[in-house]
Amino acid sequence: MTVLEAIAIFAAGIVAGTINSVVGSGTLFTFPVLLAFGYAPVVANVSNTVGLVPGNASGAVGYRRELAGQRARAIPLACASLVGAGIGATLLLTLPASAFKAIVPAFIAVALILIVFQGRISKWLADRGGAAADRAGPVATAGVFAAGIYGGYFGAAQGILALSILSLSVDDSLTRLNALKVVLVGVANLVSGIVFVFAAHVAWAAAGLIAAGSVLGGLLGARVGRRLSPKVLRAVIVIVGIVAIVRLLV
Question: Residue 221's domain spans which residues?
């Protein structure tokens, strides 16, 4: 790894940590960067997942005020995310690498579609209103479980999926649900990361650089991320995601 490559991976970690706290698609930055530097797709995904764990933790710390009073719903949903992520990580390790190469471009394409329309979805959800619910019902639990499986296999746009599920099934402000989303995605990343550490090949240098950058980005995203232009974020993510799709298919 050259110095320039190390700087690029570290910078991608900062961007990913920031966006994971704000939007939830940071993998679309770090994953293509690792691919561009010659890492195999599965190794890149595994190393990226491990590296982003600290960033999710720092993002949750940054949202601690919004998380206050959400323990009753957070614990069962976190358990659902945990189990789902374990299944998804197992699928990644048991399915052949050729399956990952075939499936991931479709995952990224779906993630990009969600990102393109995320602004409209968020506006519609923000206008729903309603009183806060202390607990999450079976619909939210099942949806978070499914999102956990997806996140354990490949985490791009898992945050957007989880936030959409929470917003449709739990009555609370979008800001508080976004804070809860950071925790649920963090749990999924932590579980799948632990599985990968013991059962897969991790490029530790790349994972460490992503981890260092994502910690800074997670704090930044929680504190000032809401000031960033959603249109600019979506445009950059779409461009990077298209590059990732092209590289995987070619």
Answer: 3-249
